[in-house]
Design a protein that fits this description.
The chain has about 100 residues and is mainly α. The chain contains 2 helices and 2 strands. The relative contact order is 0.09. The chain binds zinc ion.
Length: about 100
């Protein structure tokens, strides 16, 4: 979001901020406190409401269909765990002997 510069409508409360002012006369927002959502959500349009969040589409987008091979990678992790377990057991036996 680009920084707000007066003159213009305050992005926080929507009040007009005249040229030359560094802070909103109505709500007190300024460049230091941030003309952004950090100062308050009230005046902003939220593009994604939590109710509209499509989890399946999100996973598909983020993981690029990796779910299709989840069975294979699940097996892989089983083998990794098994090998690690064997290494730990063998190391334990060795250190027990010497
Ligand atoms: Zn304001």
């Amino acid at each position: 979001m680009p920084a707000f510069k007066p003159p213009g409508d305050c992005p926080i409360c929507g009040e007009f901020v005249p040229r030359g002012l560094v802070s909103c006369p109505a709500c007190g927002s300024c460049a230091n406190s941030g003309w952004s959502e950090e100062a308050g959500y009230d005046g902003l349009d939220l593009p994604d409401a939590p109710e509209d969040f499509d989890y399946d589409a999100f996973v598909e987008r983020e993981f690029g269909g990796r779910r299709k091979s989840s069975h294979l990678s699940g097996n892989l992790w089983w083998w990794v765990a098994l090998v690690l377990l064997i290494i730990i057991i063998v190391t334990g036996i060795k250190s027990g002997r010497f």
